[in-house]
Amino acid sequence: MIRPGDSIEDAARVMRGYRTDSAAVVDPEPRITGGVLLSDIFPVIISRCELHGSVESRMSRNVVTLVPEDEIQKVHALIVESGFSAFPVMKKRRVAGMVSRRDLIGSRRVRTVIADHARTPVTSVMTTDVVTIGPGEPVNAAAELLVKHDVSRLPVIDGDHLVGIIDRHDVLASLA
């Protein structure tokens, strides 16, 4: 929770501390009066602050992945269980796509698929034009890609191999 008078940096600190992508804005009662999304304040934060380090020093190495044959229900379950909002889809040990909460919502049929226990593969909703970054790149390059492409996570690729993933929270950890 944050208060209406809190700064954007305060909101980012709270979200980073809880590894969440949103915070409720509460009045003194406390009543919820609104909400703030990390995706909305992230561009402001990175423009105001100096970022330090390489992608490799901030990325997560244990990446939860999917394969093209995995079903949409598995994606939904992973989002709920892990708290992550997007996952690389691997085919023959290479990134073939990304599937995100936004992809599920955008498909407009996910609720029906889940309710009917339909065997719909992630390939039917995944994004195949994947934005990636190398481990030796500076964190500010990752931040710029996250903002430019409005994505929450970037696969980190060394050659053709997935070596990690970097998200907005990882970038926030590199603030000066």
Q: What does it look like?
A:
- The protein contains eight helices and six strands.
- It is of the alpha+beta class.
- Strands 1-2 form a two-stranded antiparallel sheet. Strands 3-4 form a two-stranded antiparallel sheet. A two-stranded antiparallel sheet has the order 5-6.
- The mean pLDDT is 90.
Briefly characterize the structure.
The chain has 176 residues and is an alpha+beta fold. Helices cover 37% and strands 21% of the residues.
* Beta-strand proportion: 15-25%
List unreliable stretches of 5+ residues: none
Strand count, sense and barrel status of the largest sheet are: 2 strands, antiparallel
Count of runs of 4 or more consecutive helical residues: 8
Shape type:
flat
Measured as a percent range, the helix fraction is 25-40%
Terminal CA distance: 24 Å
